[in-house]
Amino acid sequence: MDLNQTYRMTKQRKIIVDVLKKSNDHPTADLIYQKVRRKLPRISLGTVYRNLEILEQIGMIRKINSDGTRMRFEFSSEEHNHIRCTECGSIEDLKIDCAPPLGNISEESGYEVIGCDQEYYGICPSCQKKSQKIA
Amino acid sequence: MDLNQTYRMTKQRKIIVDVLKKSNDHPTADLIYQKVRRKLPRISLGTVYRNLEILEQIGMIRKINSDGTRMRFEFSSEEHNHIRCTECGSIEDLKIDCAPPLGNISEESGYEVIGCDQEYYGICPSCQKKSQKIA
DNA sequence: GTAATTGCAAAAATTTTGCCTCATA
DNA sequence: TATGAGGCAAAATTTTTGCAATTAC
Fold it and tell me: Could you write out the three-class secondary structure of A100-130?
């Protein structure tokens, strides 16, 4: 990231942030693109990607790597954890129960430790119901 | 996954497992492909992907979604955490300092909680040295 | 012998990028 | 008006898949 860069607030960028602010489902880039297109039909997917990249770098949004094949995004609100359904891939927010101890890790690894993502995984209520029907 | 499926141990599959057993660097599919090709020059990348998928399903290896753009893999040994370098993307193992409390999460979310991945991130010793040279 | 597995190649899915034009600051 | 940003399309990257031939059990 070029720290001497000055960023402009375009209508595209504004609407992308807006969509993320209103989303609580951690959408993928393509889903964000679909939603933004309702307001800006001529926006391109490339623009969405470029903006998501910039918005993450300036700390306005966060990237979540959930299933490994594609990124998800969320607006940067207070710190929290995620729980992901191993069946349907949906992600929900969780409040933080226990923050991991960053100090020990630094000594142990030699890393300059910045943080820690905790991702819980399991089967969501909706998928639990589905598997009951099958069984 | 088809539970009635019976799996065969082909030489391709055996060597892929072997490569992962000997790797401590959480390689990507392509890197595994490169390594396996030294022993089986005619193996295809598709075969590697299909095997990684199966080996993960039977619990012999684990997937790690680190940077979100591509998967990494490791042999299933004892439980541990990971620390990822935000500069170079390398991943190292960490012993588990504090296991997160799974019980609370289940009550809180309604999920049938299976587990939790903790991924620490920061700057690895090698990248710390690099940035000192630049500054 | 049978069905799982392979190699090959094509396709799919996701993300990045070049280039020229437009618009924000 | 200078340069960051957008639109479009092509390319790059990673992963998946169809199919005929092969191989493990």
Answer: CCHHHHHHHHCCEEEEEEEEEEEECHHHHHH
**pLDDT value of position A32:** 98
Domain locations in chain B? 1-76, 78-135
- pLDDT at residue A113 tops 90: yes
Interval B14-35 mean pLDDT: 97
Q: Which nucleotide is nearest to B13 (CA to C1')?
A: C5
Work out whether strand B61-65 and strand A112-123 pair parallel, antiparallel, or are unpaired: unpaired
**Apex CA A56: angle with CA A50 and CA A59, to 5°?**
145
pLDDT for A135 equals: 56
A59 touches chain B (CB under 8 A): no
- Provide the H-helix boundaries in chain A: 11-22, 29-37, 45-57, 102-109, 125-134
Inform me whether the pLDDT recorded for A90 exceeds 60: yes
pLDDT in tens, B34-64: 999 999 999 999 999 999 999 999 999 999 9
Rg (CA), chain B: 18
Closest nt by CA–C1' to A70: C14
pLDDT value, residue A53:
96
**CATH number for the domain whose boundaries are B78-135:** 3.30.1490.190
CATH fit for domain A1-76, picks 2.60.40.2100, 2.60.120.260, 1.10.3720.10, 1.10.10.10: 1.10.10.10
* Least confident segment among A22-31, B55-64, B114-123: B114-123
Say if residue B117 is exposed, middle or buried (CB neighbours under 10 Å; 0-12, 13-18, 19+). middle
Nearest protein residue to nucleotide C8, judged by CA and C1' positions: B44
